[in-house]
Write a structure and sequence with these properties.
alpha+beta, Beta Polymerase, domain 2, 6 helices
Length: about 170
């Protein structure tokens, strides 16, 4: 389990991903305590039946993103690292060494569009297996095209994700 930070490799869905999430969720609850209003398994490893990078995405919802500063120091040491250039609506914490990343932990406010859309997309994929297979086909194509360029792989999925969110909201 795990993946080099620059690589894109897809694996068949693995039931152990949910187990890994649950174990890490316990660790995150210890760190965040009452600050974490929600800890969710997100990303493709949370969608049964589709291929995914062997990297578990977790979304932590806080009342205010600024609450992350209260626990930041705990994530600035091994096995964690904090991405140095956060977006305005997310802090990203990584777990595992660069050559074998295990978890990406997306920290957001529960009121943010990012938080809501991530859960909405996950839940829509879970309840619409045909759409999930369409997403998987796109991911396979992009994994070949961008095998050594994870930022382009990720960016190239955005149009599909946005159109799916619009479709789901109808």
């Amino acid at each position: 389990m795990g993946l080099d930070k620059n690589k894109v490799i897809l694996e068949k869905h693995n039931a152990k991903w949910a187990e890994m999430f649950r174990a890490e969720e316990k660790e995150l609850r210890k760190i965040f305590g009452d600050l974490a209003l929600s800890i969710e398994h997100v990303g493709s490893t949370s969608i049964p039946g589709i291929m995914a990078k062997p990297l578990v995405d977790i979304q932590v919802g806080l009342r205010h993103l600024s609450d992350f500063e209260k626990v930041r120091a705990k994530f600035e040491k091994e096995p964690y690292s904090v991405k140095p250039d956060p977006s305005p609506d997310e802090q990203l914490v990584r777990k595992g060494p660069e050559e074998n990343r295990i978890f990406l932990i997306h920290i957001t406010s529960v009121d943010s569009d990012r938080f809501k859309n991530t859960l909405f997309f996950r839940d829509y994929m879970r309840s619409h297996p045909d759409k999930a297979r369409e997403y998987e086909a796109l991911k396979k194509e992009l994994a070949v095209k961008y095998a050594n360029d994870r930022p382009m792989y990720t960016a190239s999925k955005n149009d599909f994700i946005q159109s799916t969110l619009k479709e789901a909201q109808k």
